[in-house]
Design a protein that fits this description.
single chain, alpha/beta, Nucleotidyltransferase, domain 5, six-stranded mixed beta sheet, five-stranded mixed beta sheet, 7 helices, 11 strands, 34% helix, globular
Length: 232
């Protein structure tokens, strides 16, 4: 089965096509706040590179968040539209899982963090297990100090991954046993999205397009700004 993966949870846009043989075409771009303009040409690009038509796609996978509201809305809406048009099932994968999977070859506790802006982070704790990672905590939103308190309580060696970890690296630099992952792994990618989605597909863990919902964890910034303005 060929899977189309769409990833738009952060300021980056990515899509990929792959299956049992792995990823066969991948596109990623960091054109901030240009998700809607970038995504459709990106999908056209990967189908050309893979030399397949959309009618050969057997499932659509999408990053369901948590992440930035506008990007998630664009990606999820596009994925639902394509899946509905092709009459194929969907797979939804959390963004923090996509950050943790590429660094699974570690004995440390993995903490995936996405910059949620407004001085906050989306984050979750993971550990490596045979064939992947296991999430140890729910997806959460909080301040860097909240994450710091949880890290101090664990007392374990920790691997930090994500653009949130890099932005607030100074908050964690005095902790012993903490390592920060390289910049090139700082954003969710469509490549592990397709990889994880293929595992879901083998187990037939699909959802219908109309049942798939993004994970926001927080209200849109525009709504928060409007309520703050009204309160003043």
């Amino acid at each position: 089965m060929l899977i189309l993966g769409i990833e738009t949870a952060t300021h980056r846009v990515g899509c990929a096509i792959g299956g049992h043989e792995g990823v066969i075409a991948l596109y990623e771009s960091a054109r901030d706040r240009r998700h809607a303009e970038t995504l459709v040409p990106a999908i056209q690009f990967v189908t050309r590179q893979a030399r397949i038509g959309l009618d050969e796609i057997g499932a659509v996978a999408v990053d369901v968040g948590p992440g930035l509201y506008t990007g998630l809305r664009v990606g999820v809406a596009a994925a639902k539209a394509i899946a509905s048009a092709l009459r194929v099932p969907m797979v939804g994968i959390p963004s923090l899982d996509l950050l943790a999977l590429p660094v699974r070859h570690t004995s440390r506790t993995i903490v995936a963090m996405i910059d949620a802006r407004r001085g906050e982070l989306f984050y979750a704790f993971y550990r490596a297990v045979p064939g992947g990672v296991q999430r140890l905590t729910p997806h959460q939103v909080g301040k860097p100090d909240d994450v710091l308190s949880e890290l101090q309580a664990t007392g374990e060696d920790v691997l930090l991954v994500g653009d949130g970890a890099r932005r607030y690296a100074a908050a964690f630099e005095d902790l012993r046993g903490v390592e920060l992952v390289e910049q090139w792994l700082a954003h969710p990618s469509a490549a592990p999205l397709v990889q994880l989605a293929h595992s879901y597909a083998l187990r037939e863990e699909f959802v219908n397009p109309w049942d798939l919902e993004p994970v926001y964890l927080r209200r849109p910034d525009a709504q928060i700004n409007w309520e703050t303005r009204d309160s003043r």
